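Can't attach files on this board, so I'm pasting raw text. These are the components:
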Amino acid sequence: MAAILALFCMSATPCQAIVFYGTSDSMHNTTAPTGIFQNSGWQYEGLYGAYLGTMIAPQYFITAQHFGTQGNTFTQSSIFNGGSDVTYNIDTAANSGMGYWDIAGTDLRIFKINESFSSYAPLYTGASEVGLTLVTNGRGGPRGADVLVSSVLHGWQNGAADGNARWGSNKVSSIYSSALGDLITANFSANGTAEEATLSSGDSGGGVFVNDGGIWKLAGVNYSIDGRFDTNNTVGNSSDFDAALFDRGGLYQGSDSFGWSFVPNLSQDNPASFYASRISSNSAAIMSIAVVPEPHSVFLVLLAALGYVTQRRRITPQL
Ligand SMILES: [Ca+2]
Ligand SMILES: [Ca+2]
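---
Top answer:
Structure tokens for the assembled complex are below.
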């Protein structure tokens, strides 16, 4: 059932927010993380139109495809870099005039800038995401109205996207193979991580980072959420909604167009999940576009200047 629901989610709810289990405060986690979440990826995020993207190489950032192009700039605002806003210009002539590269069979899209970033995220290229703590970043809405089942709180409806960037945490629960490639999933748990969060409309494109032995690496790009939900399976009465649910039990999931499935209300919670396009499955394709200099690049460039090396080497993807 989870797979079907997830498939439905892919087709019908391309995630259009960070919602916290622990608080309704819309200003929660709108500044750089500290403590155990310090340097967990926030510093690599930037504004791309109404959404986020992540810097992955000196001249490249990655984001989602499904919200379309969002103008010709990428801004590393002061909230991310701790200094002042820096706006970069996208190379609209890149990729033979396309202006971007799509990773085939996924929701991932890469843009090139004309200038250079001063820092960029390391990519997670391993296969052991499941069980790792993650941090996700997005510009969706905060909590909306309570979702009650027989007067018991099961979660919150999605609030309107406010455009504020937030970060939250969760734990990778599985890798889901979808029509749009591998997706990292994380469920919205009542007893979850310290900053347990899920997504809502507007969070798409933001980076998902995992803690790989103490170093936070980009492992995903926010894509989607489970949904929609309803208290009834009556078509056409406009009662359906998107929500962050730590328990879907007692509600219908689906849509008026594709039908509704009732989720039994059991004693154990049945949390909804969010989905992020998986970086590791696509790291070779990503690195074939977004060339990252090797650690020795300065030395190689120096050698080239001296005539010893005529071409810069390309990095070999580490799978
Ligand atoms: Ca969780
Ligand atoms: Ca309905």
